[in-house]
Amino acid sequence: MLKVTEHGVTITLNGKPPTDGVFWFASALLIGAMGVVVAMSVLPRGLAIGALALLVVASFVFNRMRQNQQQQKSAKLISTGVIDVQAGMISHNSGTVQDRIMVQTTDTFENHGTSLTVFDSNQQKKCHLSGFENAKEVEIVQQVLQGKSLSKRHATIKMRSS
Length: 162
Prior knowledge:
The protein is an alpha+beta fold. The protein contains 3 helices and 9 strands.
């Protein structure tokens, strides 16, 4: 839902909150450990040690992938809650937490249809906004962040009696 205010716009985002991946890591580790236990009881000692080594290498690779994902998440991922967008600032309210993201004139935007990514002057991802109802909301947010003004259109409804 988009609401034009005197300082910018307020939009309610209806996306899915991002998951942290802990469940998937725990599941993969449990399945790997069960595989090693089965391998140790069925396979000869050399192959069982190889299966254990494979589990250790797989855990290391998974951890590296997770660290890369966490570094990419250093940028704010906003997909739910209410955002109040003004020229140069995004204020995000997700119930109990309120964040403010300052947007500079040197920042760039990447419009993905129903999502918007903001990059700083070093092309590092500053924030990613998703959960918009349509592409028009994304365009409006981008225009407000760039300092362009919006005007409200007031419609008058006249009723005729018969």
